[in-house]
Structures are given as C-alpha cells and as structure tokens.
From TrEMBL:
Species the sequence originates in: Methylobacillus rhizosphaerae
GO BP annotations, alphabetical order: phosphate ion transmembrane transport
Molecular functions per Gene Ontology: phosphate transmembrane transporter activity
Chief localization: membrane
Cell location: Cell inner membrane; Cell membrane
Start and end residues of each ABC transmembrane type-1 domain: 80-299
Name used for this protein in its record: Phosphate transport system permease protein PstA
Protein family per UniProt: Belongs to the binding-protein-dependent transport system permease family. CysTW subfamily.
Coiled-coil ranges from the UniProt annotation: none
Family annotation (SUPFAM superfamilies): MetI-like
Amino acid sequence: MTTQASVLANLAEVRAMIRKHKRNDFIFSIIGLLALMLGLLTLFTLFIDLVATGYPRFSLDFLTNYPSRKAAHAGLLSAWVGSLLVMLVTFISAVPMGVAAGVYLEEYAPKNWFSDLIEINVTNLAGVPSIVYGLLALGLFVYGLGFGESILTAGLTLGLLILPIVIVNTRESIRGIPIAIREAAYAVGATKWQVVFHHVLHYASGGILTGVIIGMARAIGETAPIITIGALTFIAFLPPSPVSDVAPFINVEWLSSGFTVLPIQMFNWLSRPDHAFHINAAATGALIIVVTLLMNATAIWLRYRIRKNIKW
C-alpha cells in the first residue's frame, strides 16, 4: 500500500507539473501573439497614415517627373532610377562574393581557431549599425580610392552592408542540407566540387535566394550610409545609360555619376517647411514600404516554391 500511495503521489506531482508547463506555454504564446500583433498594427497604422497623406500624389507623373521647387510638379524619376542603379552595383558586388564566402566557410575551410574567428567576426558585422559602413566608405571609397560621391561608391557601401547577411544566410542554408545527400553523391564517385555545386547549392538555393532578397530589401531603404558618403539631395538629371549603341554596347560612365535614391529624396522633402512637400514625402514612404514588402513576399514565395519542388 505504501508503494502504491507513493506512485499515486508521484503521478499527481507529474500531472501538476505538466499542467503548470502547459499553462506557461499558453501564457508565453499569448505574449508572443500580442507582441506580433503590436508590431503588425504599428506597421499597418504607419502605412495607412502614409497612404492617406500621400494619396493626392499617387500618379504616373509622380514617377516620371524630376524633382522640382514646386511640390505639385515634383517627382521621383531621378530617385528611383538612382535606386535601381545603386541596387545593381550592390547586387554585383555583394551576392557572388557573399555566396562564395559562405560556401567556402561551410564546405572547404578547415575547422580551427582561425575559421572560428572569421565566423564570429562575420556574425558580428551583420549587426553593426549602418552609419559605421558609411564612415568606412567615406574614408576608403570616397577619399582613399578616389571614387568620389558616385553610384559606384554607394553600391559598394551597401554591398559591404549586406555582405555579412548573405554569408550568414548562405551558411545556414547549407547547414540545413542532410548529410545523406553528400554521402550519396560521394558514393557514386562525385568529387568535392561536384557535390557542392550539383547537390548542396541546388538544395540550398531557396534559403540562399531568400537571404539575398531580404538583404537587398534592407539596402534599398538605407539612408544613413548614403548621406554619409555625400549623396545629392536634389538632382534633376539621370545618370548615363549603362547600355550604349556602340560596341561593346556597355557604358561604365554611369558608375561615376552623381545620384540620389528614394530615402534621400524623401528626407529632402521632409526637411522643407512647405506642407505640400510633406505630402510628396508621405507618398515616397508608402512606395518604399510597398517595394520592401513585395521583395520580402517574393522571397517567401520563392523559398516555398523551391522547397516544394525538392525531393529528398
């Protein structure tokens, strides 16, 4: 009887502990849901306010006109073209290098203290404030290498900003590939490079692509590093076209051209006392949020489609 009573007492304690843990889990899930809803509600409120304020400027002319001293005629043509060209340089400078660095660190680098040191520094760089990259670019690219206040400087600056993000996401995506995939490839005689290129990168492409798009979405809204390197706040011309009608049909003069981007144009309009320019800034802010959300939604959709088509 004593043994049975002891077992029943232990069983009651276990059940009480389970109920307590379930209650704590429920409380934590409610707190997490409330925190999520608070963030989404804040973003939704901000977005609705920007749309309501900037609605009068939502038109094709707003996207095709140059900035002007008259708010009713001012547009975003030079700003969104500048953003596209800066993002092009950012993508070319950061993505191939970031993916290659992530593959090397995860698949080829020896596991020693030096690799651990690199990993720690890359992870820390992903959390460095963007203004620090702007100060680095000002000393290195603008004055050190003499690139000046150009599209090339802005693209390389934002490339440095998202490089750690691309590296970390690439490594995390590669780590998610089952070891059995590699072992099966080695079993049929594949080389190290064939395993990495044809199997590991193929299966990790969804996660890598997601990290790249999220990094680009962050870069397109950055203002501090662009201001630091001296982006123009008022520009009424477009950079030279990257494409030429003369062989080899590539023009690089646009890399050294002055520029502005969407966040800088928004900042310029907000700094003016005329309320009409504040309406333009609100419309620009709503446009930036829409572009960012579309990029993140595209990343999620591509990741879902790619993973859906993968057969382990």
